[in-house]
Amino acid sequence: MRWLTRPVLSGRVRAPFWLLVAVTATGTLAMHILVPVLPLAAQDLAVSPGRIQLAITLYLVGIAGGQLLYGPVSDKFGRRPTLLVALLLYVMAGAVAGLATSITMLVIARVVQAVGGCGGLVLGRAIVRDSAASGEAVSRMALLTMVQSLAPGVGPAVGGFLGAWFGWRSIFVVLVGLGIFTLGGVWLALPETAASRKAARSGRMLGSYLRLLGSPVFCGYMFGGAFTSTSFYAYLTASPFIFTQMLHRPAAEIGLYYLAVMGGVPMGSFMSNRLAPRVRLTSLLRATSGIAVLGAVLFFVVSATGMLSVASVLGTMIILSIGVGASAPIAITGAISTDPQTIGAAAGLYGFVQMANGALCTLAVGFFSGNPALTAASVLLVSLLLGQCSFLLATSSRPVAGTSRD
To answer: What pTM, to 2 d.p., does this model score?
Structure first.
């Protein structure tokens, strides 16, 4: 079993950054790349648009729930063997999905693919925190977030191209190929980074979560990060209706508007990457999350006063996305640094709460759909203000962990 615990290319003391990008991108790319080809898949499998949408909806359920599993398991058995199993599951399920002959087969394979893919989301963050020296964690997490944020923007474009030229099943050929490449990279080059494995073996999964939930610092960072980052889903859900129904723009332009707003996330992450080694992180967290709140306030004002235009929507939401991209790496690092014995469990619980909040924000926009702009703006503003309160709880108890510049 040495192949599970030791890389073939031994002697490396930290994971190569390109591999961390590939690991964390697997789960999110598989979610976004399928969206443009859903009509093609529905036609091929002879199902309604509502039923084929389950391939996305239940994927989100799988990617949220699976994150609760991987953290404690990797704390007990190590990051490397857990990640190898997760990626193997991802590859096998992707192959089955590509060969699916019914909607039931496709949906089941997608759920299993999500459970495998979310291992990279959890363990990529945990590995960054494991291997980062004091003062480096936030900078490396920001750089990872910056690169990873490209997947939601690039994924649909790639998926649309593949579907148009090679059919919807070609999506899974690409995902399986990338999964095999990433699996090979982990096997060859990823060292074991979980120094606390032996201590974690005596614990239990439920105990790890209860200990984390009993920490005001962890809960402050976790809920602050979730309220600040995935509240963004409220806008993403409402944006097609804002632009087509309220601003009377053609549907073909929506993708461009989406890319413009999403571009703020890597800009913010780059800002955190550059400032984290130089600025006290509690101050940086308050300032960057404050930028997100400013964007939400401005978006609410233009929605409530009827000053909506393409420029006002994009301008305010780009401000918000810059704040989200800048504050998210600090919040993640603070949360998973709370207890060195449960870094994996903390990363998993953080990811689960993120996805749960995103789902709730999406449901709220759908429930109050009379004025999509005002509804989305209200959800964003309430969520981001709750995030500010949560960050205040975390930073008033203890500064951001894992750095020498607290």
So the answer is: 0.75
